[in-house]
Every structure is written in C-alpha cells, then in structure tokens.
C-alpha cells in the first residue's frame, strides 16, 4: 500500500473519530468498528452456546434416566413436549436437532470465525478497519436475525425441526411427515438461508481486507498464522456455503411448491404421494459438500489461534512456519473433496467409496503436520502456563485423540460397522466440538485485554480449564466403547433392546460428567462478564507478544492507531532471539545492531 494510501487512511480515521463520539446506537448497536462487531458476535455466540448446552443436558438426562419425570422438563419443555415432566420422543428428536444446529453454526462458526476474524484481521495486518465497515455490520445483523429465527422456531405449533441437524429428506421435505416437519422446519430453512448470506458477506470482507489492506512491509509470509487460518477459512466458506444455500432453497420448493427434487415414491399412511423422480441422496451430496468443509471452517480458526498462543507462551518461534501455511492450504483444498465419507452407507458405488476413503486419509497428513509442529514448538520452550496456554495444549490433545478415530471412520469398510453409533458422536465431538471450543476459550483468555482493556481472573481460568478438560473426556471417551458395541445414536431410549441394558450405567456416568462440566462453565461466564467491568486494568502488551494488535493503545479508537500506521520489518515469531535485549521483538521493531540477521 502506498504512502498516500496511509495518509488518506489517516485522515479518514479522524473523520471516524468525530462520528464515533455519536450516540449509544452508532457506538454499540449499529457500530461499523470491527472491534465492536467482534464483541457482538462473541456475546451472541455465548448466549447461543448456553441454549445449546442446556438442550444437550436435557436429552442426556432423558438417555440416562429414560421415562423418568423431571420438574425441569416440565418447566423448560412445557406440557406439550413433556407431559407430567416425562419427555416425549418427539421432544427428544427436536432437542438433538436444535442442539446440533445451534452449536455448529451459531456457536462455533460465530464464536470463532465471526469473533476472531473481525477482531484480529485488521489489527494483525495493520489496517484501520475492514474493507467495508457497512458490509461488516450487515453481516452481523443478518447473523443475529437468523439466530433469533432459530430460537423462535422452538416455540411454534408442532415444535421445532426434528429431522436431525442434517435435516435429511423426506422428514424435512414433507410438512406432514412428523410433528417437527411443519412450521419449525420452514423457519429452520429460512434461518439457515439468512445465516449463509451473513457468512458470505463476512467472508468476502475478510478476504478483501487481507488482500488489499496490509500495512507497509506486511508481506504474506509475515502474516501471523491466525490471519492465514482466518483468511483460508473465509475462502472455504465462499466456496462451500452457496451449495448449502441451494439445498435449503430446493427443500423449501419441495415443501411449499410441490416440486420433487429430493422426493420419490413416497407412501404416507398407506397413501401414495404424487412425488417422483427426486432423490434424497442428492440432498446428502449437497448438504455434505458444505457439511465437511464446515468442520474446517470451525477448526481452522482454532488452529490459527493455537499457533499464535503456543508460540507466544512457549517464548519460541513457531516451528515450521511455512509448513504450517502449507498445511492450512492443504486442509482447505482437501476439505472440499472428502464429503462422500459421510455417505458410505447411502448405497454409494463402492469404487466411489474407495476414492473418498483415499482423500479422507490424505487429509490426516496436513492435520498431523500441525499437531507435530505444535508439539515441537512447546518442546523445551520457556512455557508460561496461563489459562489460554492450557486450553491450547488441551486443543492439541483432543485434536489428536479425536483425529485418530477419524482414520477409522474415514475407511469405508470400517465405517459401515460403526456408522450412526455413539462412536461417531465421540469422534466428531472431540475433534470438532471440544477442540473448537478449546480454541475459542484460548482466544478469549488471550485477547480479552485487547477487547475489553481488562484482564480475566487467572485462578478462575485454571479451575475452568481443569474441570472442563476432565469432564470433556469423561463424556466422550466412554462413548467410543458403547459405540463399538453397537449402541445407535439419536435413540430416545434403549430400554426396548435388552442387548443394551449393560450400558445403562455408562450412560448415567456420561450424563453426570456432562452435568458437572456444564455447571463449571458458569465459572467462565462469571469470570467473563465480571472482568469486563471489574477486572484488573490491562497493560498495553500483557503477554509480551510480537504481533501488531498489541501496539495499539488500550482504549479503543475507531481506526486502531492514533497516528501513522505501523511499518513491519520482521515476521511475527521473533521470540527469544539472540542479540536482542528482550525475549521478544514486535513486528514493527527495525533490525538492531548485533542481532543475528536470520532470513525468514
């Protein structure tokens, strides 16, 4: 970017300063400042996370103590879904469906990509703001509207969508199929269409910002790995989200206009329906073409955050910077050609199955590169054990344990035996759910001082980490074993099968761990919201980190830097470098005499 560009930006930021002294609405509600929009995403994601976790506790209680009456069911689900406090099977399916949808799209996608892309991209590349502040604000408000619609769908006649979070037809395509196929399902589809529009706006903005607004000296090979990960995530979103949009629109057509894209030869209560020529497997292809890249849309930001925090807290340069970039790009490319491994049991041609097996096993290579690089960076580092570092180490642990079971599920012959059992739940919750949440928690603890100018309580952070880590494995580790033994998922109760009686105790154990783990998230919530107002005031660079966001003043201004934009002289991982007075060298620090001129 030219010097004139800097000056223009500089003047522009002064205009912003005057505007931003405006009223409450322009500052906190319809803000164009990327830092405020990041906070909006984060707090919306946390609220949705509370809803998603409460749902999972309700259906866990139902599986552990089937047909029991609970007052909490009566309070939260009402007489219709839980007469006399006993959960109906329709309610169970609806809870499972909405829990999956909310956690995948509204918590993990928003909490990671929405929050950290907005917060970090302009700050870490040395830009005043996003390429388009207005588009950025619009993407948040569309996300908010879609979240509100998803919540409203819980209260409509017939109940919320209940065909699984993947909403396979015919349950999702026939309004009369089951109670949850009515209005709730239509709202689900409309909400998802708006969510996709929001994601696309955000992603285009992130990509444009990284390509066009890097400060002087900030070449692509000097970008922090967080920016690489968030940039690549945005590219995956742009490629794959439109496919899910088409699936949602075609489903709406099938539901409302009598078309037959996904329906064929359907009998309802003995009556032959007029649909013919469609195929539910076509829907599966469209859904999973987004559904699998979605896993990486969720996990890549967590990986980028982990790279940044591990290097900073090990006081060591990240090991294999270029290999890490290559693995991010490799994951992005491969993630779009592996979707068929979700469909090994759909009657797919076995030859096609073997192709998808090959590409799925291939993606283990860049994933392993990342895991080894994290471990090598930590190796013999001068480690600072703060909560964000603990969550990053937890991330590496769950990513490896969850990833190993992925090798089993990625093989078509082995997958057929454990498909749709608890083994699958254990795998993807560890690798996607827990790992991504750990990445999100790590990012919140690390960048909280940047967001709110205050520090979170470290001791509460330690309690939060250790209880969460023990409970997460307590919930998902036993599921591998009951899954291998054949216990199917999404069953409201297993009492009809004497074969599964012996797993009763295991399900109770899992549920107890889930309840304890969820209760201790209250420690995090207290720490988060209390620290926003009463936490210890943060210094400018509390973690002694190299990246540019810590060169901005603690109090927020729209435009990030009060004067000139910083100029970048080095890569972001010059920690503990010989010849320097400190053990870190910010990116905007010129080379000094006596420093080893290592070329990166």
From TrEMBL:
GO annotation, cellular component aspect: membrane
Task: Show the Gene3D superfamilies listed in the entry.
Answer: Cytochrome c oxidase-like, subunit I domain (1.20.210.10)
What's this protein's name? Cytochrome c oxidase subunit 1
InterPro entries linked to this entry: Cyt_c_oxase-like_su1_dom (IPR023616), Cyt_c_oxase-like_su1_sf (IPR036927), Cyt_C_Oxase_1 (IPR000883), Cyt_c_Oxase_su1_BS (IPR023615)
Instruction: Give the principal location in a single coarse category.
Output: membrane
Coiled coil start-end? none
Domain Cytochrome oxidase subunit I profile, residue spans: 24-593
Q: Where in the cell is it found?
A: Membrane
- Membrane-topology annotation of the record: Multi-pass membrane protein
What the record says about family reads: Belongs to the heme-copper respiratory oxidase family.
Q: Which GO terms describe its molecular function?
A: cytochrome-c oxidase activity; heme binding
Instruction: Say if the entry is tagged with keyword Iron.
Output: yes
**What species was this sequence derived from?**
Myroides marinus
Q: Which UniProt keywords apply?
A: Electron transport, Heme, Iron, Membrane, Metal-binding, Respiratory chain, Transmembrane, Transmembrane helix, Transport
């Amino acid at each position: 970017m030219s010097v004139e560009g800097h000056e223009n930006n500089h003047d522009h930021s002064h205009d912003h300063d005057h505007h931003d002294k405006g009223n409450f609405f322009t500052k906190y509600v319809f803000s164009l400042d990327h830092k405020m929009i990041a906070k909006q995403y984060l707090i919306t994601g946390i609220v949705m996370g509370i809803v998603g976790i409460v749902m999972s506790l309700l259906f866990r209680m139902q599986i552990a103590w089937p047909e029991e009456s609970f007052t909490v069911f009566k309070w939260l689900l009402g007489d219709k879904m839980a007469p006399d406090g006993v959960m109906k099977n329709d309610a169970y399916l609806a809870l499972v469906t909405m829990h999956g949808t909310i956690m995948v799209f509204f918590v993990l996608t928003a909490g990671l990509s929405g929050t950290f892309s907005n917060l970090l991209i302009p700050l870490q590349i040395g830009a005043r703001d996003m390429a388009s502040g207005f588009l950025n604000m619009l993407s948040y408000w569309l996300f908010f509207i879609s979240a509100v619609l998803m919540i409203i769908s819980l209260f409509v006649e017939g109940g919320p969508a209940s065909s699984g979070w993947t909403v396979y037809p015919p349950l999702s395509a026939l309004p009369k199929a089951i109670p949850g196929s009515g209005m709730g399902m239509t709202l689900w589809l409309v909400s998802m269409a708006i969510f996709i529009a929001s994601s696309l706006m955000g992603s285009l903005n992130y990509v444009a910002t990284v390509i066009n607004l890097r400060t002087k000296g900030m070449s692509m090979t000097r970008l922090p790995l967080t920016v690489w990960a968030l940039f690549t995530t945005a590219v995956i979103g742009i490629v794959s989200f439109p496919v899910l949009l088409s699936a949602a629109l075609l489903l709406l057509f099938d539901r409302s206009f009598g078309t037959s894209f996904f329906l064929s030869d359907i009998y309802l209560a003995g009556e032959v329906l007029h649909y013919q020529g469609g195929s539910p497997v076509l829907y599966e292809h469209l859904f999973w073409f987004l559904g699998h890249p979605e896993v990486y849309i969720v996990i890549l930001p967590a990986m980028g955050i982990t790279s940044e925090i591990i290097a900073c807290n090990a006081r060591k340069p990240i090991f294999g910077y270029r290999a890490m970039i290559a693995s991010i790009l490799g994951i992005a490319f491969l993630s779009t050609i592996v979707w068929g491994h979700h469909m090994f049991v759909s009657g797919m041609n076995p030859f096609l199955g073997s192709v998808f097996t090959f590409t799925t096993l291939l993606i283990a290579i860049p994933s392993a590169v990342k895991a080894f690089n994290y471990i090598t960076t930590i190796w013999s580092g001068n480690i600072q054990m703060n909560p964000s570092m603990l969550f990053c180490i937890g991330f590496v642990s769950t990513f490896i344990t969850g990833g190993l079971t992925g090798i089993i599920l990625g093989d078509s012959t082995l997958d057929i035996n454990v498909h749709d059992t608890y083994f699958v739940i254990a795998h993807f919750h560890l690798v996607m759910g827990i790992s991504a949440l750990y990445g999100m928690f790590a990012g919140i603890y690390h960048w909280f001082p940047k967001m709110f100018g205050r520090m979170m309580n470290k001791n509460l952070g330690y309690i939060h980490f250790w209880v969460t880590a023990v409970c997460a494995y307590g919930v998902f580790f036993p599921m591998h074993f009951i899954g291998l033994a054949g216990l199917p998922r999404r069953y409201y109760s297993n009492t009809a099968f004497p074969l599964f009686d012996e797993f009763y105790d295991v399900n109770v154990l899992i549920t107890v761990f889930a309840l304890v783990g969820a209760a201790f998230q209250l420690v995090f919530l207290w720490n988060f919201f209390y620290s926003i107002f009463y936490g210890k005031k943060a210094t400018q660079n509390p973690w002694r980190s190299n990246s540019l966001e810590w060169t901005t003043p603690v109090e927020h201004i729209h435009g990030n830097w009060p004067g000139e934009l910083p100029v970048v002289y080095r890569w972001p991982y010059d920690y503990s470098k010989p010849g320097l007075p400190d053990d870190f060298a910010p990116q905007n620090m010129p080379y000094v005499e006596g420093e080893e001129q290592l070329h990166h």
